[in-house]
Specification:
This protein is mostly helical. It folds into two domains: 72 residues, no CATH class; 45 residues, Arc Repressor Mutant, subunit A. Helices cover 67% and strands 0% of the residues. Helix 3 packs across helix 4 and helix 4 packs antiparallel against helix 5. It is elongated, with a radius of gyration of 19 Å.
Length: 132
Amino acid sequence: MLARREHSAFELRRKLQQRNFVETDIEQAIEQLGQEGLLSDQRFAEAYIYMRKNKGYGPLRIALELKERGVAEDDFRPCLYANDLDWSAALEAAYAKKYGHRSCDDYQEKARRTRYLQYRGFAYDEINKLFG
């Protein structure tokens, strides 16, 4: 299971529960994998953040998805706002991918585009800077 991609401890626990493993065995396995460095929520969070950012999602949406996957905020927050992640460039790329270089003339269209970018996980202040 761990060979294909990184998993959070929560995800691995859920998968093992679905396969009807005993709870004490699950906890022992997760503890042992963590001690051996084969299971790390921080490493999972880092890989997940880069993957979702490259697909055009913003920090708010990614943070919500990581919380849903059982990753503690202390494990992903430093990576989410690391200096090497340029969220304004990601916002511009997501906007350009969806709308190209078409101008936004009327209020309704601007509101529609703003909602789309907020849904993708970008902050309202950053979106307003984009529309300048």
